[in-house]
Amino acid sequence: MSQKWMKTDFGFCTPRGQVDARNLNFRVAKQLQTRFFGYVFFWGWVFIVTTTLVLILKREVDMSIPSNNTTASGEPAPEDEELELGVVESYTVLYKIMKLKPVHYMIAILLTGKLAFAATDGMTSLKLIAMGIPKDRLASIAVFLTPMQILLPWMIGKWTAGPRPLNIFLLAFPYRIFIGGVFAALIWWTPHFQLPDGKFEYSVYFVWISGYMFHQLATYSMFVSMMAFIAQISDPRIGGTYMTMLNTLNNLGGNWPVTVVLAVTDWFTYKDCVVKGSKDVLYACNTKVLADQCAAGGDVCEVAIDGYFISVAACSVIGILWYKVFFNKLKYLQKIPRAQWRVFPSRAVAN
């Protein structure tokens, strides 16, 4: 495996393929499910049946290696050739990876970096649906974003395939925080353009499509940048195991903050029971029991303080602090010789 391959193809093709696969398997399937009810259900069963047949009929060959320096046949392992590891060996290697000092910093970055965007990413679409924007209209916005998502990795490939791919990540991070504030402003602005029949003017959809384009520009720049860096630092002899672990942590770092934010946002939301047709506040209706009581009396339980805006503000502040703390650390991680990321020492290392 040449150094040139490690620096270009490995740092470019991996994020390139992930972006295309993500669009094909998520965006396209989502559109088909919207138009053909049961599409995902059908292919879900196809997946279950095929994987079950593989489990029953397929027999794996033991390709595990007797040592770190030899192949299954006992011959010396070629330099940088990917090793065939058994289950026990794979987890042993994972443990060794976790012990590497640079990986400690990466784990902290991957698990906490997306907390800054949790409220925006996890709640904005839910707020739009609650306002009355149809789900299929919201899903259709993704169609306009797909060309940009496909072209973006090619556009920034020159930088992500180089020795400092995280520079794109660092540039996009504050921009994405700013977009979160823009989305909060748009959420406040959107209800003012709702028509009497509950629908929205086409200009509202145009504004949101434009907003999501700028949002995805930052999101995918960070995604491609991080994937390129992970591909570069992964030990080529255990590339699949190494990258899978870091990608799993990266995905986990994007999911747990959204779960937490969705759980706590109601704590920041305050509602008042208002006399229908007036602004007279009777009492707070923050619980379901009080909200039902308000509705039973013919009154309206209105949101006085929306927790969405508080959550976006809190996440943005956390993001600014995170950026200040980890900015130099991310710069430092790019400068670390690639040899320090490896579990198995190599004579020829791509720096």
Automatic annotation (TrEMBL):
The reply on keyword Membrane is yes
Q: Which InterPro entries match?
A: AcetylCoA_trans_1-like, AmpG_permease/AT-1, MFS_trans_sf
A GO molecular-function term, please?
acetyl-CoA transmembrane transporter activity
Q: Does the keyword Repeat apply?
A: no
Q: Which Pfam families match?
A: Acatn
One GO cellular component term of this record is: membrane
Instruction: Please provide the Gene Ontology terms (biological process) for this protein.
Output: acetyl-CoA transmembrane transport
- The identity of this protein, by name, is Acetyl-coenzyme A transporter 1
Q: Name its species.
A: Caenorhabditis nigoni
